[in-house]
């Protein structure tokens, strides 16, 4: 079943965390969660708004970003199809500290705060899943800081692509990534033209192949360890 035809319930049942729930718990989750369509360029979440939902991507791609006091756009992460985010902010019970924008037309799943907190109370396996999620997220952001401060653009593009293949944060992502060069630029902090140059270099190195409609990863470990 493709993501374009996948229903909300199909998506919920395909997640890693759903496998940890009892049938009764899953019935409530399916009843409480709801879907939203966000067009390209639209806001999935806005900085400063209250935290009402845990958010998943049924189909699409979003970027988590913020603006510096000088107006510079800083992208923290991209979340592709299958990823869920916002659990840290829900646990801290704070206003959202970042914007989340759709890089393409995106279908979003939302789990209300009440349901999320109920699962934390009744499901130890769900709590364990969230501990793993937070640990993986921490590793992702530590890597992001290192990449931004120490790496050139070619290497940042390689690491940006590799970071999307995290089996816990983004399960089910196939080796053919439906992502444009413009989107790679947004996520790696480069212009579309500069991202294109980096991707051509990675293709020459035999790490990726630039196909129509996306990028095919040929050597994931090579991407993770690539140094220009």
TrEMBL record:
Domain of life: Bacteria
GO CC annotation: cytosol
Keyword Translocase: no
Coiled-coil ranges per UniProt: none
HTH crp-type domain boundaries: 151-221
Molecular function (Gene Ontology), one example: DNA-binding transcription factor activity
Key words, A-Z: DNA-binding, Transcription, Transcription regulation
Keyword Transmembrane: no
InterPro entries according to UniProt: cNMP-bd_dom, cNMP-bd_dom_sf, Env_Response_Regulators, HTH_CRP, RmlC-like_jellyroll, WH-like_DNA-bd_sf, WH_DNA-bd_sf
Occurrences of domain Cyclic nucleotide-binding (ranges): 17-137
Pfam assignment, any one: HTH_Crp_2
Protein's recorded name: Crp/Fnr family transcriptional regulator
Organism: Massilia atriviolacea
């Amino acid at each position: 079943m493709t993501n374009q035809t996948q229903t909300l319930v199909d998506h919920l049942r395909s997640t890693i965390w759903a496998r940890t729930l009892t049938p009764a718990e899953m019935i409530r989750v399916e009843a409480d969660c709801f879907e939203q369509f966000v067009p390209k360029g639209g806001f999935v979440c806005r900085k400063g708004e209250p935290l009402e939902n845990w958010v998943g991507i049924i189909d699409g791609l979003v970027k988590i970003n913020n603006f510096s006091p000088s107006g510079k756009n800083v992208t923290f992460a991209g979340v592709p199809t299958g990823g869920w985010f916002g659990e840290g902010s829900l646990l801290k019970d704070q206003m959202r500290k970042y914007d989340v924008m759709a890089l393409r037309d995106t279908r979003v799943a939302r789990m209300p705060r009440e349901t999320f907190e109920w699962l934390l109370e009744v499901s130890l396996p769900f709590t364990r899943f969230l501990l793993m999620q937070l640990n993986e997220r921490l590793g992702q952001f530590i890597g992001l800081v290192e990449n931004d401060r120490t790496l050139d653009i070619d290497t940042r593009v390689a690491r940006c692509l590799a970071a999307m293949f995290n089996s816990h944060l983004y399960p089910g992502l196939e080796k053919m990534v439906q992502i444009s060069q413009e989107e790679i630029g947004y996520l790696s902090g480069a212009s579309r033209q500069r991202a294109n140059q980096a991707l051509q270099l990675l293709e020459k190195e035999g790490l990726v192949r630039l196909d129509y409609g996306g990028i095919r990863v040929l050597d994931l470990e090579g991407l993770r360890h690539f140094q220009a």
